[in-house]
Amino acid sequence: MARATVLGRLIWRVATVTAVRDETAGARTITLDVPGWPGHLAGQHVDVRLTAPDGYSTQRSYSIASAADGDRVELTVELLPDGEVSPYLAQVLSPGDPLEIRGPIGGWFVWRPETPEPVQLVAGGSGVVPLMAMVRARASAGTGTPFRLLYSTRGPRSALYRAELDRRSADGSGLDVTYAYTREVPDGWERPPARVDAALLAEAVWPPEREPAVFVCGPTGFVETVAGLLVSAGHDARLIRTERFGPSGGRP
Prior knowledge:
This is Ferredoxin reductase. It comes from Streptosporangium vulgare. The chain is an alpha/beta fold. The chain has helices at residues 2-9, 86-92, 128-141, 162-169, 198-204, 220-232, and strands at 12-24, 27-33, 45-51, 57-63, 72-78, 98-105, 119-124, 147-153, 175-181, 213-219, 240-245. The protein has six helices and eleven strands. The longest helix is centred in the middle third of the chain and has 14 residues, at 128-141. It starts with a helix and ends in a 7-residue tail after the last strand.
């Protein structure tokens, strides 16, 4: 039965786009209705396949941005101007259109609401997408698990989900959000533009003695640097889970 369940997740399903919304000037969230969707865990991803009229097809992987909610799945796609798939998803796809997806995929980089330890999320750029699914899953489950998010992005205009993150961090639910702007900062911001370093991690991340579950997602260089700094600061490498992406247009 377990094998049948796994195989069921590896079939291609035809989803229907029910809504799209712009997150930033270069990123769009796509809401899908996926008949027969088996459910997913926060941190998992799907494969998306596009097929041209001449039969040529290509596929990319995208992280799921939403908490489990019946047959509804949300993907947030960042536009890559020279990409093969993202321009269609971020600029052309419209409500009512079909979209082939396969999943959910992945069992390592996931968070389950029943786990009690504090959670530290560290995102670089669009690496915030699967971490946002964890934030939303926490809220959906009504758990009081302490969450911290350190989100590195170029500037306020490039920050995905900023309004929602600010709202959730102000509602007293125990979510703490710290932004690290690398190119442009808001007016009155205390820190100059800078990359995540050891000093910022010491300030914004749960201390090692709390033994947090750590999830780091972003470009390969960012993930490797952050993971190395965390281990150097005393965090147990066995509690650090990483997800990275490169320039090919894959997930997040």
